[in-house]
């Protein structure tokens, strides 16, 4: 099947094609055209985005839920609802993120993730064989192909109780031998990504990182008070990223630079940030854009189940979390995740001076590189998946494609 997506401002890795088109074949980007050079292309269907800006689909590597669904307690059907909401906001792939909890809760959550990944793989094969390239979709609605689930992100439970943030200390664990990891279930899919946020200063923390890497997990540093020497050891053991940088870690001090100072200086380590104007002041976001640069930054939502429900009180993680003017707060007064989407984060960074190529890097290619899937997706390049997000001049999602399939069509 051949689909021509035309009349777009195409955000390529290093430049923008102001009047571009993409030829999509069998779910991949077959060719990128400039100007009128695509007029003679034969395709079974055409998607005209009327000058919208075409980004690579956003990839959210840290999200706890949305639309009333919490990943820790979700069924496969619940997770699908989150996938549908995310696709409506330009997210084409995501990593369901678990907060510390009991064994049985983990087991149910991982079973649900495994089930949805299996369903999505089956649907993708069926659609490739049986459906036309432009599946009939009502304007502004979603079909069964929504954002892909990539695996799981364990935020904890092996982190520092002194930097718990909104995480519940009673579910934190210790690491002494590799057997201590065996109680954490893994997703039953050979392609599933497994990422864990750890604090390297906990007992056995460096050995924990080595063991996770031996098992093929991606390791991120977070909820930590580690000193630079411990962080150096963590990097040597295989940690390559930092979770919601500056949040839930000891702050920068001129005599104790800690994880913030270390993260600012280590060019080989990437940092993810919650660009909601709450977790980090807008001025600090500008500092990071200038000093760290988009080459090392990844946008995340850190969204919780209240996302998409508006202000109010919500029962999440066994406690009351209040959302007021878009800011979350638990009973202890701590920020408890966010209620933004990746589209919101992208618009915030654009408003602070980031270019559209910078946003594509932070919202798509950097997350893809961290997860080891950048050969397949994360940028608009020939041969990669046609995971695409078209945003109109007002900042609204117009079209989302997942693997070349139209999953959101907001065109009038």
Please tell me about this protein's structure.
- Helix content is 25%, strand content 27%.
- The chain has 412 residues and is of the alpha/beta class.
- The strands form four sheets. Strands 6, 9, 10, 11, 12, 13, 14, 15 and 16 form a nine-stranded parallel β-sheet that branches. Strands 1, 2, 3, 4, 5, 20, 21 and 22 form an eight-stranded mixed β-sheet that branches.
- It is globular and about 65 Å long.
Contiguous low-pLDDT stretches (5 residues minimum) are 130-143
Radius of gyration: 21 Å
- How does the major sheet shape up? 9 strands, parallel
What is the succession of H and E elements? Answer: EEEEEEEEHEHEEEHEHEHEHEEEEHHEEE
Q: What's the count of strands?
A: 22
Please write out the topology.
Layout: E1 2-11, E2 16-25, E3 28-34, E4 45-48, E5 53-56, E6 58-63, E7 65-66, E8 69-70, H1 76-87, E9 91-98, H2 103-130, E10 148-149, E11 151-155, E12 193-198, H3 205-214, E13 218-221, H4 228-237, E14 241-242, H5 258-265, E15 270-274, H6 282-291, E16 297-300, E17 312-316, E18 319-324, E19 327-329, H7 342-351, H8 356-371, E20 388-391, E21 397-402, E22 405-409
Parallel strand pairs: 1-4, 1-5, 6-9, 9-10, 9-11, 11-12, 12-13, 13-14, 14-15, 15-16
Antiparallel strand pairs: 1-2, 2-3, 5-20, 7-8, 17-18, 18-19, 20-21, 21-22
Helix pairs in contact: 1-2, 3-4, 7-8
């Amino acid at each position: 099947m051949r689909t021509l997506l035309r009349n777009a401002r195409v955000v390529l890795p290093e430049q923008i094609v102001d009047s571009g088109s993409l030829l999509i074949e069998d779910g991949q980007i077959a060719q990128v055209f400039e100007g009128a050079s695509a007029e003679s292309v034969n395709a079974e269907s055409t998607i005209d985005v009327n000058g919208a800006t075409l980004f690579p689909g956003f990839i959210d590597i840290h999200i706890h839920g949305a639309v009333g669904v919490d990943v820790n307690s979700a069924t496969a059907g619940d997770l699908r609802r989150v996938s549908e909401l995310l696709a409506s906001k330009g997210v084409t792939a995501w990593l369901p993120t678990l907060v510390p909890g009991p064994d049985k809760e983990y087991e149910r959550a991982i079973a649900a993730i495994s089930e949805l990944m299996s369903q999505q793989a089956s649907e993708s094969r069926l659609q490739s064989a049986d459906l036309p390239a432009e599946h009939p979709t009502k304007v502004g609605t979603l079909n069964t192909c929504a954002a892909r689930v990539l695996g799981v992100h364990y935020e904890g439970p092996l982190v520092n109780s002194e930097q718990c943030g909104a995480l519940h200390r009673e579910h934190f664990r210790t690491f002494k031998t590799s057997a201590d990891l065996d109680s954490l279930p893994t997703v039953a899919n050979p392609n599933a990504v497994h990422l864990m946020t750890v604090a390297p200063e906990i007992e056995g923390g460096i050995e924990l990182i080595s063991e996770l890497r031996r098992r093929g997990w991606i390791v991120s540093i977070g909820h930590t008070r580690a000193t630079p020497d411990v962080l150096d050891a963590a990097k040597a053991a295989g940690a390559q990223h930092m979770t919601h940088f500056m949040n839930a870690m000891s702050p920068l001090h001129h005599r104790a630079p800690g994880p913030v100072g270390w993260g600012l200086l280590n060019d080989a380590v990437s940092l993810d940030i919650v660009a909601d104007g709450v977790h980090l002041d807008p001025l600090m976001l500008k500092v990071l854009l200038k000093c760290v640069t988009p080459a090392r930054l990844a946008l995340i939502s850190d969204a919780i189940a209240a996302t998409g429900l508006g202000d109010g009180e919500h029962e999440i993680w066994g406690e009351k979390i209040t959302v007021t003017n878009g800011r979350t707060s638990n009973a202890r007064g701590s920020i408890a995740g966010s209620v933004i989407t990746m589209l919101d984060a992208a618009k915030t960074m654009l408003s602070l001076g980031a270019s559209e190529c910078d946003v594509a890097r932070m919202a798509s290619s950097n997350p893809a590189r961290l997860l080891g899937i950048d050969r397949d997706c994360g940028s608009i390049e020939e041969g990669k998946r046609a995971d695409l997000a078209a945003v109109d001049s007002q900042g609204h999602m117009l079209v989302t494609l997942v693997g070349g399939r139209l999953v959101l069509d907001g065109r009038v």
